[in-house]
Amino acid sequence: MLVVDKVKVLEIKQSVFASNDRQADEMRRQLKDKGVFLLNLMSSPGSGKTSTLRRTIAALKDELRIGVMEADIDSDVDARAIAETGAKAIQLHTGGMCHLDADMTRQGLEGLGLEDVDLAILENVGNLVCPAEFDTGAVKNAMILSVPEGHDKPLKYPLMFTICDVVLVNKIDVMPYFDFDMDKCREYVHMRNPNARIIPISARTGEGIDQWADWLRTEVAAWKNKDADHE
Amino acid sequence: MHELGIVFHIIRSVEEVGRQNGVSRVNAVTLELGEVSGVLEDYLQDCWTWAASKSDMLRGAKLQVAVIPAKTLCETCGCIYPTVAHGRTCPECGSGKTHLIQGNETMIRDITVPEEEVPEPPETSAGDTL
Question: What domains sit in chain A, N to C, each tagged with a CATH number?
Answer without folding.
Answer: 34-230 (3.40.50.300)
